[in-house]
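REQUEST FORM: STRUCTURE PREDICTION
Request ID: SP-0412
Submitted by: Lab K.M.
Chain count: 1
Length (residues): 288
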Amino acid sequence: MLSNLKLIFIHGVNDQSTNYSKGLFEKIQNSLKKKLKAKGKSDSEITDILQAVVSHNVLWADGTTNLTNRYCQLQYQDSKLFWKSFTKKIDPLAMQIMQYIKDKGDKKTGNMNILKEVDDEIGKIFLQTNIGDFKPGEDKHAIIIAHSLGSVIAFDYVFCFRDKCRLDENATIHSFITMGSPIPIFTSAMGHPDSDLVLPPNVKRWVNIFSKHDGIARSAKIYFNNIDIQEKEVFTGFFPIQSHCGYWKSDKTASIIAEEILEVLDLQGKETRPHLVEEKANEAYKSK
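STATUS: Completed
RESULT:
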């Protein structure tokens, strides 16, 4: 069994505080305990497994937050209109999306401020280990959990679209989990509504969690012909904004992620492959 599995959380817009994923991580731990007890695991075994799963946060938007906060300060300083309370939540989303697209547009130098921040943060995470004993070589095993615009940023990073900001090829991402994700909007807008992408060789699985009431989330499976994306529907609230933010507080979301963790731990010692045959996936990935 892995003794050092990193859960790397990447937030969406306007969620920049340290430990923003703490509540969800605690729900994941509680869900793991219940599932492990149901499997007949002893208390000591459960403790060992929980200690092997370590939470990490990625913060990427210092610059964008400063800009959006200043905009909202100017735009909404005197407003008492009811509808302004709605647009005050929408404006930062739109601004940070536009800022990221602008960032992506710098193809001449290859510099991307947001992806560079993500690359730096994840690089630091992969250098960290559990407190206590761990097996050598297990410092680069991870599950990435990304929300909203964070899932688009993670998608760009995990699929290595930029040479200067790309996932370490020696890292193993056992599950790439997106929630409340608008990835299909971005890929379609870039000219690829029917994508022929395959998973990179070191990414084993893609799970997309979405709520049908979420006004931003999209089903991803139908847009990627060569990736067997596992779609998981959850209920996170009736209202679009509430539903879009509700994944972080959802017991069902936590249960899905806990199942992914158990899947990773159960697969150790066996061959773990993408859903395509590995040789075919490697050839397709290298030729893109």
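NOTES: Residues 268-282 have pLDDT under 50 and may be disordered.
Reviewed by: T.R.
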